[in-house]
Amino acid sequence: MSRSKDISFVIDQLTDRHPAWKHSRLIASQRIGMAGHSLGGNASAATMAADKRVRAGANLDGTFFAPVPANGLGSRPFLILGTESDHIPGKDHTWDRDWANLDGWKRWLTVPTPHTPASTTCPSPTSCWASPHPTSSPRSARWRSPAPTSAPSSTFS
Q1: What is the pLDDT, as a whole number, of residue 84?
Q2: Which of 32, 98, 129, 138 has its CA 20 to 30 A from that of 105?
């Protein structure tokens, strides 16, 4: 079974008429989002391509092993966040390839590469902020805002 099928199965079990979890009433089935690190980031996009119930997604430092479909993700928002050492334009060809296919709200953010084993871990949120890259374009803009951009509220209406 694929990760996206696994996630869809879990959503089914949690939002079914007779859910498997006693607190499932806490789940807003129209507001499901998915984020993942590394392979989980790839699974976020793949799940969104296969399951329209996932309304927003994020890939945190992961390669897109399964390409984002050419027809996009149904205009749903998607964030890609990675380290400068691996995910600036031209470094990971899968990000370059799939950027054009992300057809909803999208952001490509990079953070400085910390010197820790977990490459997206920062000692504090402000330590990850950086000034704009000299060759900054909309897709390579670096995280600089104390109030990060959010998806439009209509995404979850």
Answers
A1: 87
A2: 129
What pLDDT sits at residue 49?
A: 97
Nearest-5° Cα angle at 45, 87 to 64: 40
Integer angstrom CA distances of residue 38 from 7, 75, 87:
16, 23, 12
Domains of the chain from N-terminus onward? 3-20+29-143 (3.40.50.1820)
Measured CA to CA, the distance from residue 108 to residue 137 in angstroms comes to 10
CA-CA distance, 78 to 42, in Å (whole number)?
Answer: 12
- Tell me, what's the pLDDT at 144? 39
The pTM for the full model equals 0.74
CA nearest neighbour of 113 among 140, 152, 137, 82: 82
Task: Kindly tell me the number of DSSP H helices and DSSP E strands found in the chain.
Answer: 4, 4
